[in-house]
Design goal:
This protein is α+β, with helices and mostly antiparallel strands and 570 residues long. The protein has helices spanning 65-75, 84-98, 147-272, 277-380, 385-499, 522-530, 535-538, 546-569; strands at 2-16, 23-36, 42-50, 58-63, 106-112, 122-129, 134-144, 504-506, 511-514, 517-520. Helix 3 packs antiparallel against helix 4 (277-380) and helix 6 (522-530) runs antiparallel to helix 8 (546-569).
Length: 570
């Protein structure tokens, strides 16, 4: 005899008894297909109704193929015996689906003729409800179990319970082993994570302190350098400005004095001239050339003043740039303060994670104590297996929560690592910006050096113009002396001719003697003129300013060539 279990589930059943109120009862329906091969092969459908809360509640129904034929004819069924078990199970499934509704469409009714369900036959009806009427799809009559059947059923229940108990004990043992392994593994992983966190904290604190010290030192050094450079530039600029102003004032005063002297000399020469129109015209030409040179010098002075104004504007722009750099340094300091605040926040997050870790350790200790209590209760109370199942489920849920918390901790550590990487990138960006600021400062220093070189070149030009003026002054003084000597010689000649005859004799050395007093001829004056200082001999690389000195020499030579002609005319 072989039994094939088809259905075994608890179902809510509506109990109807005469003289008592309707009530709902949770009944376990067990459907088995019994196959008997001795002496004839046949199949029977066994249906059993039991109550998990009441072990003496037992109703049996065995339907053979002959019984099914009579049941089919009585209730008008349209299925065969082979398909009847599945159809009956489908009806039970529909009842299970509708049992939690307020007005179920399908329900099971357990109807008894007696007032109490006490060893009396009952009928199990599958009823479909609609607004019009209640339709009974199937009605099966069950017989109560006798003492032997109840004992057999209780023995099978006890056997199943023992098997379930052994299975549960095995599961409990395995789960305990798994839990202990998982706890040991989690403790090891927690200790490793704690060590890694401590290492990361130590490295991070050392790195942050080193970076903050380095940046603070660099900022202070840059500030001091910028302030020193600014003070030096300002002092140099003021000194150069004062020197240039003094030099320009002196040169202007000298030129004005020289011009006044030249005007006085010209007036004297115009008053004294007579019979020397040609010489006076040449002197006027010389004076016009000197005036042109003075105008050129004035133009150079004006150009130098313009250059001075441009230099002042450039210095003002550089001061603006220095102010911008100072504001940039202040912004960088503010960013460093913000980053310090971020570091403080990350420290707070780490403290919170440590507190969570302590809470988790306490919860694990509590769970271990709870597991020990559960083991004691399992050994002492074997009857409360259902409660043990619920407690195990709760423990599994707690373990899942612990695993989820550990995952959360891992995610938090990963996020902290990402934050540390972002902070390192930000610090590298700030270092690059500081390097760029240093490069810009170097560029500004180079520009200042170029400006200093330009100032030096302008100073050299001013010195060259001064030398030119000195050479011109020397030429003019020498010409004045020569003119004075010529006039004195003329006066002496006139006085000598009035009183006595004039004796003139030329010496062998090229000297013209006038009344016993020698006068240099043209041959002796020319080498003296050629030996005079000129700008062409001093500065061979600047040929433009050499023209006035050559012209003066030619004019002087022409003037002394005219002296004998004047004597001849006399």
């Amino acid at each position: 005899m072989a039994a094939e279990r088809l259905f075994n589930r608890p179902v809510w059943v509506q109990v109807r008894c005469p003289g008592c109120e309707e009530r709902r009862l949770n009944v376990r329906v067990n459907i088995e297909l019994l196959s008997i091969s001795n002496p004839v092969h046949k199949k029977d459908l066994a249906v059993r109704l039991t109550d998990d809360a009441d072990p003496f509640f037992l109703y049996n129904l065995v339907i053979s193929e002959e019984d099914f034929q009579s049941l089919k004819s009585q209730q008008g069924l349209l299925v065969d015996f082979s398909a009847f078990p599945q159809k009956f199970i489908d009806l039970l499934q529909q009842c299970i689906q509708e049992q939690n509704k307020d007005i179920p469409r399908f329900l099971l009714q357990l109807v008894s003729s007696a007032s109490v369900l006490d060893h009396t036959p009952v009928s199990l009806n599958v009823v479909e409800t609609n607004p019009f009427k209640h339709l009974t799809h199937l009605s099966l009559k069950f017989l109560p179990g006798n003492d032997a059947e109840i004992k057999k059923f209780l023995a099978s229940c006890l056997k199943c319970l023992k098997e379930d108990k052994l299975m549960l004990e095995e599961k409990l043992r395995k789960t305990e082993e798994d839990l202990t392994r998982q706890l040991s593994y989690t403790q090891q992983s927690l200790s490793e994570r704690n060590r890694e966190l401590d290492k990361l904290k130590h490295e991070w604190t050392s790195h942050t302190t080193a970076l903050t010290n380095k940046h603070s030192q660099e900022l202070t050094n840059e500030k001091e350098r910028a302030l020193q450079a600014q003070a030096q530039y300002q002092q140099q600029h003021e000194q150069q400005k004062k020197e240039l102003e003094n030099v320009h004032q002196r040169s202007v005063q000298q030129l004005q004095n020289r011009l006044s002297e030249l005007e006085v000399i010209n007036k004297d020469l115009t008053e004294r001239r007579y019979k020397g129109d040609s010489t006076v015209r040449e002197l006027k030409a010389k004076l016009s050339g000197i005036e042109d040179e003075c105008q050129r010098a004035k133009q150079e002075v004006l150009s130098l003043r313009r250059e001075n104004t441009t230099l002042d504007a450039e210095c003002h722009e550089k001061e603006k740039l220095v102010n911008q750099l100072q504001t940039r340094v202040a912004v960088l300091e503010q960013e460093i303060k913000d980053k310090d605040q971020l570091v403080i926040r990350t420290k707070e997050v780490l403290d919170a994670t440590q507190e969570q870790k302590v809470i988790l350790e306490e919860s694990t200790e509590k769970k271990q104590s709870h597991i020990e209590k559960l083991e004691a209760t399992i050994k002492s109370l074997s009857a409360e297996l259902l409660k043990a199942n619920e407690i195990i489920k709760k423990l599994q849920g707690d373990l899942k929560t612990l695993m989820s918390k550990l995952k959360l901790k891992n995610t938090v550590t990963v996020q902290q690592e990402k934050l540390l990487a972002e902070k390192e990138e930000r610090l590298q960006k700030e270092q690059r910006e500081l390097q760029e600021v240093g490069q810009s400062l170097r560029m500004k220093e180079q520009e200042v050096c170029k400006l200093q070189e330009q100032l030096e070149t302008t100073m050299q030009k001013l010195e060259e113009s001064k030398q030119l003026l000195k050479t011109n002054e020397n030429v003019i003084t020498w010409l004045n002396k020569q003119l004075n000597e010529i006039q004195m010689a003329k006066k002496l000649e006139t006085s000598a001719s009035a009183h006595a005859g004039v004796r003139t004799a030329i010496s062998p050395h090229g000297m013209v003697s006038t009344n016993g007093r020698p006068f240099p001829a043209q041959e002796s004056v020319i080498p003296f003129l050629l030996c005079m200082p000129s700008r062409t001999l001093q500065n061979q690389h600047t040929p433009k300013p050499s023209a006035p000195s050559v012209q003066h020499r030619r004019q002087a030579l022409g003037l002394f060539c005219l002296v004998p002609n004047v004597d001849g005319m006399k």
